[in-house]
Predict the structure of ABC transporter substrate-binding protein.
Amino acid sequence: MMGNSCHENEKSLPLHIGINDWVGYQIIRYAQQSQLLKKRQISLDLIYFSNLQDATRAMLNGALDATFTTLWDLMQPSPYHERVKPMILWIVDISHGSDGIVARPPVQSLADLKGKKVGVKFGTINQLILLEAIALNHLSARDLIWINLVDDVAVDHITQGAIDATVIWQPRLGEVAHRIGGKIIYTTAQTRSLVIDLIATRQSLFAEKQDRFRRLFWVWLDIINVLEKSPDTLFSVLGQTLQRSPQSMATDYQGLTPGDQRLNREILGSPTAIASAIEKITELMNTSYYNHKKLYTDLGYDAHFINSSLDLWTPLP
């Protein structure tokens, strides 16, 4: 009896999940403001991080049960990989216009950036966005002068004219373009982007908490269902929670392909799609003249978990 009681107590504990302020992740907060968590018999504690690399490290070292992150961030080399294998639970979204490159006049296109200074923080998702843009436009990483800057500093530099372009995301992408009288010369809507947001855990923890992760995945699908059927309801609740305009949040989300049933089955329901994405990111990194390093590619994922969870999920009434 005591063993069963301990097991039930463990199940009642919240899952500790890392998160930042990205709108694609923030929609999970709808579950906290509705009855979704209670109905799915799961509790959740969201731990805020200012950047995803810190959140990913915290997950790997055992401080979190799981974290929102990107495929790129999960592939960054870490000393924890000697004893911990990261595992992808499900796909949250894929960037389709939310991320891009803004440039000062007279730059009008990627081709105009040859020999120009571009602000990008090495090792972050912005590096991948720049590599995607370069590849799409048949340029070389050596054609540009890469300036290693964190996002806020890069915005200051482009505003002051110290750099010619920078990689950033919405809504700041549009705000900066307007402020400097510049142009958005690339967005992830121009390619099948590898900027893939996901939620990840440690493989060793997956077996132990698989049922709870499944319930949380169902909560995620419930939220996507609300997004598809009643987006005004979703963004109204989020706007009140986050003290933001519902309209602005909805606009920011428009640049994302949601991690719905179709996308998760397509990418994680068979081993080929996610393996292909990992391979393509590795190939892009191999073209990087700046900050070139060997990425970690031994990521875990479970097609059976995805497919069976999707098969068992039914929308809540």
The chain has two domains: 2-94+195-312, 99-190. The longest strand covers residues 86-95. Confidence is low (pLDDT under 50) at residues 1-8.
